[in-house]
Amino acid sequence: MPLIVRDAEPDDENSLTELMYEYIVGFYQKPRPADGKIHKLIQTLLEKQLGIQFVAEQDGKLVGFATLYFAFSTMKAEKITIMNDLYVVEPFRGTEVESELFLECQGYSKDQGYAYMSWITAPDNKRAQHFFEKMGGVQGDWVNYSIV
After folding, report:
1. pLDDT in tens, the chain (148 residues)
2. Which residues contact 29 (CB under 8 A, 6 or more apart)?
3. Which of 98, 102, 130, 145 has the smallest CB count inside 10 Å?
4. What are phi and psi for residue 123, nearest 5 degrees?
5. Is-contact 143 94, C-beta < 8 A?
6. Dihedral of the CA atoms 121, 51, 67, 28 (nearest 10)?
7. How far apart are CA 138 and CA 117, in angstroms?
8. For 124-147, b where at least 16 C-beta lie within 10 A, e where not — what string?
9. First vs last Cα of the chain: how many Å apart?
């Protein structure tokens, strides 16, 4: 069965929840958010007002997801997308699944009239950095900060 990349749908909630936990806890080794919080996030993204999620499906099973959040750029005075997540399960890393999810986010951003799509990755995630450079991404000039 061919690879299908599509908008997440309500029926994807359970499988998408499991993928998100693999991403958060398994890949980034962060604390597991409560199920209710993950489900609320998925429901918010299904509304497509604050963001959108795309899923990659192979043989009827979800094998990856990408999340875009909608924001604005003061510098451009236009709306932008932020690709907050691009996750593919281990056997599919380095395959077309990554590229197709990325291209779906990029195409959505262009088709919906966003000025640009931006994203960040961990400084030690060299594999992702190489992938993003291969896809035409350019490392920005800004230093990223956060606070709790």
Report:
1. 799 999 999 999 999 999 999 999 999 999 999 999 999 999 999 999 999 999 999 999 999 999 999 999 999 999 999 999 999 999 999 899 999 999 999 999 999 999 999 998 888 888 888 888 888 888 887 777 767 7
2. none
3. 145
4. -60, -25
5. no
6. 60
7. 11
8. eeeebeebbeeeebeeeeeeeeee
9. 44
pTM of this structure: 0.90
Q: Which amino acid is at 18?
A: E
